[in-house]
């Protein structure tokens, strides 16, 4: 009784089994790698959009401060800037009355991808006084 077959036909069957096993393992490794890469790209995209949203909201605050230096009174304003063929940023600025004859300035930036909001950031300046220069610009708050 032989424990190990010596014919070449029996060994070919083992080679097919081994090739199938290695191919299956490689297939699952590629699928796992694909998921990791996709998640990393999504996280990088989200971070980039958050940074763009913060910068746009901060720019909205600067526009609002410039408008308040010209005319110190409550207002609302909205503007849209393109970020590419399908993406744009919409910034809403509002100056609202606050106690002691001061104003609160709020800027909200919304990143739209194909008309659908994908990121939103909100920043504020509170207790803005009517003074020359930056001394009356109030306290900065980030509330996203």
Q: How big a fraction of the residues is strand?
A: 25-35%
Uncertain stretches? none
Number of spatially distinct domains: 1
Largest sheet: 5 strands, antiparallel
Secondary structure class reads alpha+beta
Q: Provide the gyration radius in Å.
A: 30 Å
What average pLDDT do the residues reach?
87
Strand order of the largest sheet: 1-2-3-4-5
Q: Helical region count?
A: 1
The geometry reads as rod-shaped
Number of strands: 5
What percent of the residues sit in helical stretches (DSSP H or I)? 40-55%
String of helices and strands: HEEEEE
Distance from first to last alpha carbon: 78 Å
Structure description:
The chain is an alpha+beta fold. The protein has one domain. The protein is built from 1 helix and 5 strands. The longest helix has 63 residues. The mean pLDDT is 87.
Question: Topology of this protein?
Answer:
Blueprint: H1 8-70, E1 75-82, E2 87-98, E3 102-113, E4 116-128, E5 139-142
Antiparallel strand pairs: 1-2, 2-3, 3-4, 4-5
């Amino acid at each position: 009784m032989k424990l190990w077959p010596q014919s070449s036909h029996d060994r070919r069957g083992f080679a097919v089994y081994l090739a199938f096993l290695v191919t299956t393992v490689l297939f699952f490794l590629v699928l796992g790698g694909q998921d990791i890469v996709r998640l990393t790209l999504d996280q990088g995209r989200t971070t980039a959009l958050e940074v763009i949203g913060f910068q746009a909201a901060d720019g909205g605050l600067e526009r609002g401060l410039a408008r308040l230096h010209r005319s110190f009174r409550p207002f609302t304003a909205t503007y849209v800037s393109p970020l590419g063929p399908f993406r744009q940023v919409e910034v809403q600025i509002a100056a609202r009355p606050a106690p002691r004859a001061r104003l609160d300035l709020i800027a909200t930036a919304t990143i739209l991808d194909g008309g659908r909001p994908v990121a939103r950031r909100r920043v504020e300046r509170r207790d803005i006084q009517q003074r020359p220069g930056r001394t009356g610009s109030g306290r900065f708050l980030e509330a996203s």
